[in-house]
Amino acid sequence: MLPTAKRGRLAALSLSLGLLAAPLGASAALQTSVVASGLSAPVAVAQPQPGGALYVVELGGTIKVVAGGVTSTFLSIPVATGGEQGLLGLAFDPGYADPSSPGHRRFFVNYIDPTSRDTIVASYRATSSLLADPASRVEVIRVDQPAGRSNHKAGWIGFKPGDANNLYIATGDGGSGNDPDNFAQNRNVLLGKMLRIDINRDDFAADPLLNYAIPADNPFVGVAGTRAEIWAYGLRNPFRNGFDSVTGNLWIADVGQSAREEINFIAAGSAGGQNFGWRVREGDIATPGVGGALQPGMVDPVLSYGRSFGSTVTGGHVVHSARLEGLDGQYLFADYGSNRIWSMAADGSFQTMASVTNWTAALNAGGAGTLGGIVGFGEGATGELFIVEIGGRVVQVVPEPASVVMMLAGAALLLGWRARAR
Ligand SMILES: [Ca+2]
Ligand SMILES: [Ca+2]
Asked: I need a labelling partner for 157 at 20 to 30 A (CA). Which of 1, 214, 298, 378 fits?
């Protein structure tokens, strides 16, 4: 470390830069700051444009936009609430900023319809960065939900990097306990699945409520007794998932029943068709009461954990930000029940809780204070890392100011030192 005299100069320089917010020599390389608060049950965040506005999904049906420190309403739609129902997912079209793209200013939402209580994915268009047009609504696909069940709606939607045509849609098993109708293993229903549909073509020209096409390379195209929208199946409640923005690998965090939480992996080059095991398997064990041994073709999660670690996994994404020391290149996730946050190797290799890194204490020591009720992570347009708390905040993970100061001041001192030494 630097001698005391140099630390004094460094501190003076830091103060003059207005950056000194933590004691020099603090070991933590990461800091947290609140970027939005006072939100109503936020569940997801997105930042489609570099340095641009944040869009926060509120469970009750509103998308808030946070720009220049001001929070306003971007879009508000009627949704069913109660249980795990609500506005659940948001995905900006990859062509959102491209005037020549069919997806210009288009985004997609996933919500529970207030009348039918079915899952609906619909698109809307923005009229500006601060406002969407409710009249631009186009219903894309509807997924029947079983009556009277208010949980396991999943709801995440997303695009694989480099593929602007196909929207991925996570559906839960429709609810209740132990998937009583065995929907997740039934390839003739859309529940308990990862779906993949082409949103730039329409196979249902005569139907104004179905506006998508089946990608020709989906794994069950032409297979009797299956729905060709299915990309992968055997999922219980894949509430929060994420594409690796660099590699295109897909991470699916499936919330467990009563024994195991799990994280699943689909490599970017995969042809799809994976069976992730639910309701036969819960994590890496036979589902208590209804399960059994791993059957041929079933895929184990790359990570599974029991109740000593948590009770409800919240999937994140692979962090790609060189500024976030230690997290860069890792897959980040949390547990909603235990409020713990971990990261692990992002190559899709099998991991255990002995091999993950626990970030809970380091992040709780940040300026945002103790983090809790984590329901989502968000990756900004240039790798920014956001954490969404159901209690109403969006928190950003940033480099420890002292680290920045140390780097800047260290470089300045080094240059000065060299200059004097000559
Ligand atoms: Ca149509
Ligand atoms: Ca599974």
From this structure: 298
